[in-house]
Design brief:
This protein is mainly beta. The chain is built from 3 helices and 28 strands.
Length: 424
């Protein structure tokens, strides 16, 4: 019997050794959790719980992205459960967070690669009444490069890299009875996943109300571009001849899926190909033309996002000339006598005038008696001819009463408003 008992003891030792050997990879992690549990207990928070082991039933049922998942979105949201690691949990999650305190919080750290050394992004949810079990990708901000990963004043991250391994770590915060936080940063499980290929955006259509057969150098034109899918930027490109190695990004705008107005002002005459471009961050760009290989791809709607335009040099209009015409009287000046009233009419002209608002707006009447000026007055004009006539004429009239005998002369000046000059 004694020999049998010894055999049983040896067998138990062997089983223990096997169990210990199977836990070697997790010894440090378990010890860390035991340490932090001790800290929590000393602060009166004996029921504090930590994120689940990804290999337990709790971890497998709650963790998103799942442990070692592949083909994960470039903008994933995160979820996890708590507990499952205590013998009494039987691998299941627990909602018994305990502590009877008012506030909880959580930080989620993102690391590139399998080695969780220095995080490049962090998201926080603090001062909440329930311990968080999820985190939206939109809450992640870039770290400042320090081991503590400060994010104050840092920009949000836009997307993860395609086909890349990432590690993430959940750090819960519990507030003790004195309002102090118990922090267990870097004391929990490291989860990992691999991203998939980027989701390509699409250019659905490119249109304009302009006459594409008669665009003019120096004139601005508006194009309407509709984009779909995961979109961060849109723009136009235009070229003559063959595709350039680096097509210009014309009126590039930050965007999401939707319709945008893009402006183009051609600077040289020629036959152009105008096409749409749509980006999904720096991951992938779809073009309707000039595709030279990944990460640049041909848009699904390429045929509807490419236009041909003829740009012409606008004709040079003839020079505008202004002239003062002869003054006319409504009576025979050789028969005038003292007391008679005579009305003078003057005219001014513009030739080849194509500027809206440009006009002979005033005529100045000057009357001299025996060489001495007796009248100098400006009179507003009225237009005699059509606005589209090559020669446009304006006129004005002024009456004058002869008060004394003498020798009289009359002359006029015309005022060209846009040039602000008087012509005689």
């Amino acid at each position: 019997m004694e020999g049998l008992a010894n055999k049983k003891i040896l067998a138990a030792i062997a089983i223990s050794l096997i169990l210990v050997a199977g836990l070697v990879a997790g010894v440090v992690l378990v010890k860390r959790q035991q340490d932090i549990r001790s800290k929590a207990a000393s602060a009166g928070c004996t029921n504090a719980r930590w994120p689940a082991d990804p290999n337990t039933a709790c971890g497998k049922s709650t963790q998103q992205p799942a442990q070692s998942a592949t083909g994960v979105s470039l903008t994933p949201d995160f979820a996890w459960g708590y507990g499952g690691y205590r013998p009494e949990d039987n691998g299941q999650c627990t909602t018994d967070f305990g502590c009877s305190h008012q506030n909880y919080g959580v930080s989620v750290y993102l690391f590139e690669g399998n080695q969780a050394t220095t995080a490049f992004a962090r998201a926080d949810s603090m001062n909440v009444p329930i311990l968080p079990t999820s985190m939206s990708f939109s809450k992640f901000k870039k770290c400042d490069g320090s081991p503590s990963c400060h994010t104050d004043g840092q920009p949000a991250i836009t997307a993860l890299k395609a086909n890349t391994v990432y590690t993430w770590r959940v750090t819960p915060y519990y507030e003790d009875a004195n309002g102090q936080l118990i922090v267990h940063a870097e004391q929990t499980y490291n989860y990992n996943f691999t991203t998939g290929a980027p989701q390509p955006p699409n250019c659905v259509s490119l249109t304009t109300t302009a006459d594409l057969t008669n665009l003019q150098v120096g004139s601005q034109y508006t194009f309407s571009l509709t984009a779909s899918g995961t979109v961060t930027d849109v723009s136009l490109s235009a070229y003559t001849g063959s595709c350039p190695s680096s097509p210009p990004e014309i009126d590039k705008q930050s965007a999401s899926a939707g319709t945008y107005s893009l402006k183009w002002t051609p600077t040289a005459a020629g036959t152009y190909t105008v096409f749409g471009r749509v980006w999904n961050d720096s991951q992938v760009e779809c073009r309707a033309d000039c595709v030279d290989g990944p990460p640049r791809i041909l848009c699904d709607g390429a045929s509807a996002c490419k236009l041909t335009a003829t740009v012409k040099t606008p004709p040079v209009p003839p020079a505008v000339t202004a002239a003062c015409q002869n003054v006319q009287a409504d009576k025979d000046l050789s028969t005038l006598k003292v007391g008679d009233t005579v009305t003078f009419t003057g005219r001014g002209t513009l030739t080849n005038n194509q500027t809206a608002g440009s006009a002979i707006d005033k005529i100045k009447f000057i009357v001299l008696k025996d060489g001495t000026e007796v009248l100098n007055t400006d009179v507003n004009t009225t237009q005699e001819t059509g606005a589209n006539d090559v020669v446009q004429t304006w006129k004005a009239s002024q009456a004058y009463t002869i008060t004394a005998a003498g020798t009289y002369s009359v002359r006029i000046k015309v005022h060209w408003n846009t040039q602000d000059i008087w012509l005689e």
